[in-house]
Amino acid sequence: MKTDTKISAIKSWAKALARPAAEFPLTQLSVKSGKIPGGLRGTLYRNGPARFQRGGMNTGHWFDGDGAILAVHFTDVGAAAVYRYVKTAGYQAEEKADKFLYSNYGMTAPGPAWLRWTKSVKNAANTSVLALPDRLLALWEGGLPHSLDLQTLETQGTDDLGSLESGSSYSAHCKRDPITGNIFNFGITQGASTKLNLYKSDSTGKIFQKATVALDGIPMIHDFVFAGKYLIFFVPPMRLKPLPVLAGISSYSESFEWKPELGTQILVVDSETLSLVSRGETDSWFQWHFANGFVKEDGSVAVDFVRFADFQTNQRLKEVAAGETRTDAEGSLWRVHLNPQTGKVTAAEELLDQPCEFPIVPADEVGQDSRYIYLAMYRPDVDIVPERYGAIARLDTQTRNLTIADLGENRYPTEPIYVPDISSEKGWIVTVIYDGNSDSSEVCIFDSEGLDRAPICQLELPGVIPLGFHGTWKSAV
User: Fold this and answer.
1) pTM, full prediction
2) How far is the C-alpha of 272 from the C-alpha of 474, rounded, in Å?
3) Domains observed in the chain
4) pLDDT tens, residue by residue, 294-306
5) Residue 265, CB half-sphere, CA atoms under 13 Å: how many?
6) Is the pLDDT of residue 232 over 60?
């Protein structure tokens, strides 16, 4: 009863994070309302941190929770879901010890300070997923991906994609070229000479091309853009102080310094050769996520992303794990136009002047001029400081018309995923919602052309899915 009283006293969205999430086996889902569209066939995969407490201790940041994967399989007989933790070596060791053993992005390893430098960083496997023909990869940008069974989500171990070395990092934000099927990604090698490692894989995930680009200091690069002929990286003006991290005195989160005088560096890479085309510099900003990028008719490149004034967003995300946000640090959707041959910004415009995040475009339009951007945002007229996103929306980049799905009070969506219908030209938006009113989770399916209408279908999930990060869709055909 004490636990229930404590949970009921916190913010509605925080209840989903206040206790370790419980796995559940493959379970047929009940239809709460509506009907599953006949052309919706395939699997939704979602990843996110699901455990923030062990042995009476809490993690230091939202990014530190152990990753757990939700799979929702849509077939001719309905929908069934399974939810499982990624059984990393770190997860298994801490599960056995019933306490934290490792450092992570927002926390130092427990124990005497003089021994912390000997502790490795735990691969949380908690950020995103990549669905390959024969396996699912759980992605975390600080280490190797973990391979899982596509149906059961059983963890099969780390995956080197054919050529990644032990200790390498493979970002959580890979990009798939919808025309060739090739997959692009990156990782960072820290040290006296920091390197941006570039990877190109075939559609099976096997890496067949690599390259490196030198970086100044140790920056934070979370995401990048595939823009057809180019890969675009924005390097924000922040650098890691490595010694406190190496000594175990402070975490990565605490050791990044914001240095606006450096400006934002722009790296343009040829997507065919993986060679550096240009390196430019522009105003200072920070970004976590990009929506898309594409080459315009005049040869310039447009890049759409959520832009933050500085790195205060990190403090706000740290507060999410504690269940109470106090820092006002939100970003808005911007489009930057740049000359790829020089890396110089030629124009910048705000596409949407409202706080938002998790922007996406349909997978088959990545790297092309996509008219619609889907994103998560706040419900109208709410105090955003203590709240989390309570709506999803579609922005028409041509007309700037915004269509919002207000999900109701104390109901919180994950990133919206665009799903093509296998039997028509229609598209659906699928999201997982945590309902703080009933302390339950559900899958909601919307018509992509009518987000402001009631969902086409709502499916009850057998357990609570904590607020997570990123997902993907794998079609049945």
Assistant:
1) 0.96
2) 26
3) 2-475 (2.130.10.10)
4) 999 999 999 999 9
5) 19
6) yes
